[in-house]
Write a structure and sequence with these properties.
The protein is an alpha/beta fold. It contains nine helices and eleven strands. It folds into two domains: 90 residues, 3-Layer(aba) Sandwich (Rossmann fold), CATH 3.40.50.10090; 124 residues, Rossmann fold (3-Layer(aba) Sandwich), CATH 3.40.50.10090.
């Protein structure tokens, strides 16, 4: 069965040059975007229940732009003035530059890796005497804390936001040839909204090993998996599939 309709479980790209739009035009497929999960911040009361003292942490590990937003949000709600001496260790350059929304970039000690926690470890070890705060969601991937523990780094997990399923009830009678997922939470949202979902002829694409495992754990067939050596992005993997399944 050829793919003519695709639902991507992410917000619609704001950049007109997104490869998804090129894909739709090149292969004459209809691509729609819909966020399957919503992120909500924990309240100040919920944060206090974690009994975390922000002032005891001299450095912050930031894994995403979302973690940046919620770190500064909770600091403001707790009336905590983040010291200028605070060091920021960011998972990627994009996250580091996003800090400009809250701090004067050139006046802060900001470090960043390439894309994952392994890239960041050498930088963290150069500052191993710091006490690190790790702002995260309620479904933090264990690879991150496990790696920090394996390197004997002194850190505290601070759950500052939660991931919840979005309301997808309006999609009940809408069918797509291909569903694209980027996290296990997206798969959970699918079944929370549609408990009786049957894959039948629908194709499924997953980004990352944990998402792929979630697909298989729910007894679904995985048709497209990225990243791969030849297809590092989801759009490249989808294009390869479209090219070979006309």
């Amino acid at each position: 069965m050829s793919v003519k309709t695709i639902l991507v479980s992410q917000p619609k790209p704001t950049n007109e040059k997104s490869p998804y739009f090129d894909l739709a035009k090149k292969y004459n497929v209809k691509i729609e975007f819909r966020q399957f999960i919503n992120v909500i911040g924990v309240t100040a009361r919920e944060f206090r229940a974690q009994k975390i003292e922000l002032g005891l942490h001299s450095s912050v590990i930031l894994t995403s732009k979302t973690s940046v937003d919620h770190f500064f949000r909770i600091a403001e709600e707790m009336r905590y003035k983040v010291p200028e001496s605070t060091k920021y260790f960011c998972m990627s350059e994009a996250v580091a530059y996003y800090l400009q929304k809250y701090v004067v970039y050139r006046k802060r000690k900001i470090f960043f890796g390439k894309q994952n926690i392994d890239d960041l470890i050498p930088l963290l070890l150069k500052h191993k005497n710091e006490r690190f705060l790790l702002p995260c969601s309620d479904i933090l991937r264990q690879r991150i804390p496990n790696t920090l523990k394996a390197n004997n780094l002194n850190y505290t997990e601070a759950v500052l936001y939660k991931t919840v399923a979005a309301d997808l009830s309006d999609l009940k009678d809408v069918k797509y040839d291909l569903l694209v997922f980027f996290s296990p939470s997206g798969i959970e949202s699918l079944f929370k909204n549609f408990p009786k979902f049957k894959q039948n002829g629908t194709k499924i694409a997953a980004f990352g090993p944990t998402t792929a495992n979630a697909v298989k754990k729910n007894n679904l067939k995985l048709d497209i998996h990225a990243p791969q050596p030849k297809f590092p992005s989801m759009t490249m993997a989808i294009e390869n599939y479209l090219k070979n399944n006309k």
